[in-house]
Amino acid sequence: MRLARSSEGPAWLVTIVALATTLRVAHVLALRATPWFDHLVVDPEYYDEWARRIAAGDWLGDRPFYMDPLYPYLLAVVYRLWGHDLLVLRLLQAALSAGSCALVAVIGRRVGGAAIGALAALGFALYEPEIFYVAEVDKTCLSIFLTAAALALMLGRSLAARFAAGAALGLAALTRANFLLFAPLGLAAVLCDRERPHPRGRPRPVAAATVFAAGIGLALLPVAWRNHHLSGAWILTTSQADQNFYTGNNPTNPWGAYGALPFVRGNPHFEEADFRAAAEARAGRPLEPREVSAFWFAEAFRHIREHPGFAARAFFCKLVLFWNDFEISDNQDQYLLERDSWVLRLPLLGFGAIVPLALLGAVAGFRNRREIRLLCGFVVVYCASVVAFFIFSRYRIQVVPALLPLAAAGVAELIARLRGRSWKPVASAVAVLAGASLFCFHTFGIFGRDNELVVEMRLRHLAEMYETAGMADRAVDVLREAVAGCPTRCPQALEQLFAVYVRTGRLADGASYFRTFLADHPGHPDGERYLERLVEREAAAGGP
After folding, report:
1. What is the C-alpha to C-alpha distance for residues 217 and 215, in angstroms, rounded to an integer?
2. What's the whole-number mean pLDDT along residues 272-277?
3. Three-state DSSP string of 76-99
4. pLDDT above 80 for 8
5. What is the pLDDT of residue 201?
6. Which of 105, 207, 261, 332 could form a disulfide with 121 if both were Cys (CB 3.0 to 4.6 A apart)?
7. Between the CA of residue 388 and those of 185, 237, 323, 518, what are the distances in Å?
8. How far apart are CA 65 and CA 236, in angstroms?
9. Is residue 19 very low, low, confident or very high in pLDDT (cuts 50, 70, 90)?
10. In this predicted structure, what is the pLDDT of residue 478?
11. What angle do CA 267, 384, 381 make, to 5 degrees?
C-alpha cells in the first residue's frame, strides 16, 4: 500500500496543515458578521457562562461536576488571558484543529508510511464537519484533538509514548465520558503487545501498562479529588450517562436520535434538576445523586425488557444513523451555516465519503497490520458506546481521526489493485466501496438534509436567532420560507410566524400574509385561527 513518493516529504505536510488552518480561519471570519457569532444558545451558552464564573475566580466551585469539565476550564484560561473575546477563542480552536490535522498525519504514517499520513491529513483538512465545529463554542474540537493524540501515541511503543497516551486518553474522558471504556481496553492492548522485551529482562508490556495507567490517573485524579473534596464521593461527574441512556432508550424514541422528553427542559441549566424531580416524583421520596442515576438506568432497562422489539428497532436505527452521511445537529446545524459560510459551501468531504474507503483499507490490512487492527478496534468500540445512548453528529466525529488513515490505506489499496490489472481484486474492491456507499448515503427516514421537516426545523432555529438579535424582518422572511417549503405538515413554523408578527406589533402585515396563505390553502384551520386573532388584535389596537 504505497503511494507516489512526491507526497512523502515534510513540505507536503506543512502545506496540508496550512490548508487546514486557512479553511478554518476563513470559516470563522465568514461567520463574524452573523448573529451566530456572539449569540450563544444551549450548550455553548452554558459553557460560556461556566467559564466566565471560573475566570472570575470560582475555580473550585461548590458541587460535583454535572458535565465534562475540561473544556470550560480551558475556556476560562482563554478568558483570563485575552478577555471574553470569542474571536480569539475560535482562532485558538482553529490552531487546535491544525494540531489535530498533524496528529492524523502521524497516525497515517504509522499505519502505512508518510504518503498514507499525508493523504489522511489532507482528508482531515477538507473534512466539512470538523471545519464547522471549529467555530462552535463547544468541546468537540478539543475532544477531536485529544482523540487524535491518544491514537497517535498509542501506536508508538516507547514508555514515554505509553504514558502520554494514557494522559491523552484521561483528558479525552474529561471531554466525553465514554472514553473511560478505553482505559481497561488500552491496558489489555498494551499487555498483549509483546514484540519487544524490556532490555533488563522484565516484560516490557507490564512496564508499559503501568506507565499507561499512571498517565490516565494523572489526568483524572485532580477532578476526582476535587469532587471528593466537595461531596465525599470519588466521581468524575454526577453523570449524564443515566439520563442520556434513558433519552436514547425510552418508549417515546423510536429513532435513536435525540428526542425531547415531556418532563425535561432541553437546556443544561435545567436538565439535572428536571431529571431529579421526575425521578423523585415517580419514586415517591427524595433521592441521592447515585439513586437518581440508578433510577433512570433501571427505567431504560425496564423499557428494553418489556418492549424488546421496539428497543431492537431503535438500536438498529442508531447503528444505521451512526454510519449515515447525514450530520444530525445538536446546538447548531452544519447545513444551516452553509448559508453564511462560503467555506462550508465548497465541495468538501463528508462522513459518507470516507467510510467506504476506510472499510476497504480495514479489510485489506486487518490481518497484516497491528496498527490497522487497533484503529478498527477503537472504531467498533466507540461506535458501540454511542449507539448504546443516542446519535448526534458531535458524538460520532471522534472516530474520524481513526477512519481517515484507514481511508488513505483504502485509496492506496485501490490504486495497487488497479495497477495490478487483475480483474477479480479490482471487482471485489469496487463491490466493497459500492455496498458501503449505498449504506452510508441511503436516506433513512426523515434524516436527510433536504427533508421538508428537517429543513423547517432548521429554518425555525434560524428565525429564533434573527429575532433574538433584533432582526425581525429577517426572522419573518425565514419563517415564510419555512412555511412555503412545508405548508401543511409543519404547524410549528406557521405558529412561530404568527407569534413573531404579534411580538413585533406587525399585525397588519401578519393579517395580509395569512389572507394570502389561506387563498393558497383554503380551509387551513391554523391559518384561519391565526388570521382571526390578528384581525382581533388589530381592531383592539385601533387599526383599520
Report:
1. 5
2. 88
3. HHHHHHHCCCHHHHHHHHHHHHHH
4. no
5. 47
6. 105
7. 18, 19, 14, 46
8. 7
9. very high
10. 93
11. 120
Measured distance CA(534)–CA(531) in Å, rounded = 5
Across the chain, mean pLDDT equals 90
What pLDDT is stored for residue 158 in this prediction?
Answer: 87
Q: C-alpha 350: how far from its chain's center?
A: 14
pLDDT in tens, 453-479: 999 999 998 998 898 888 999 999 999
**Distance (Å, rounded) from C-alpha 497 to C-alpha 252?**
28
Cα–Cα distances in angstroms (integers) from residue 509 to residues 111, 462, 535, in the given order = 63, 21, 11
Residues across the chain: 544
Secondary structure element (H or E) that encloses residue 19, with its range: helix 10-30
CA dihedral 45, 46, 47, 52 (to 10 degrees): 90
Q: In the predicted model, is pLDDT for residue 541 greater than 80?
A: no
- Topology given in CATH for the domain delimited by 452-540: 1.25.40
The mean pLDDT of 29-35, rounded to a whole number, is: 93
Q: What's the predicted TM-score (pTM) here?
A: 0.92
User: What does the pLDDT read at residue 64?
Assistant: 83
End-to-end CA distance of the chain: 77
Q: Rounded to whole angstroms, how far apart are CA atoms 370 and 308?
A: 38
C-alpha cell at position 457: 426545523
* Beta pairing partners, 447: 444
DSSP-derived letter for residue 398 is G
Nearest-angstrom CA–CA distance, 139 and 241: 17
Distance CA 371, CA 111 (A): 6
How far apart are the C-alpha atoms of 459 and 411, rounded to whole Å? Answer: 38
Q: Which amino acid is at 99?
A: G
Residues of the chain above pLDDT 90, percent: 67
pLDDT single digits (tens) 234-266: 787 766 788 889 889 999 988 888 878 888 887
For residue 181, what are the contacts with CB-CB under 8 A and spacing of at least 6? 381, 385
pLDDT in tens, 42-82: 889 999 999 999 999 999 888 888 889 999 999 999 999 99
| Distance (Å, whole) CA 189 – CA 187 | 5
Three-state DSSP class for residue 53: helix
Domain ranges of the chain: 5-232+328-441, 452-540
If phi > 0 it is left, if psi is from -120 to 50 it is alpha, else beta; for residue 347 that is beta
Dist CA 11 CA 9 (whole Å): 5
Q: Is 63 left (phi over 0), alpha (psi -120 to 50) or beta?
A: beta
Q: At what angle do helices 70-82 and 140-154 cross, to 10 degrees?
A: 110
Determine whether 288 is exposed, middle or buried from the number of CB atoms within 10 Å of its CB (0-12, 13-18, 19+).
exposed
Which residues, 6 or more positions from 301, have their beta carbon under 8 angstroms from its beta carbon? none
Q: Is 110 exposed, middle or buried (0-12, 13-18, 19+ CB in 10 A)?
A: buried
Residue type, 94: A
Q: Which of 91-100, 288-297, 523-532 has the lowest mean pLDDT?
A: 288-297
Given a cut of 60, whether residue 543 has pLDDT beyond it is no
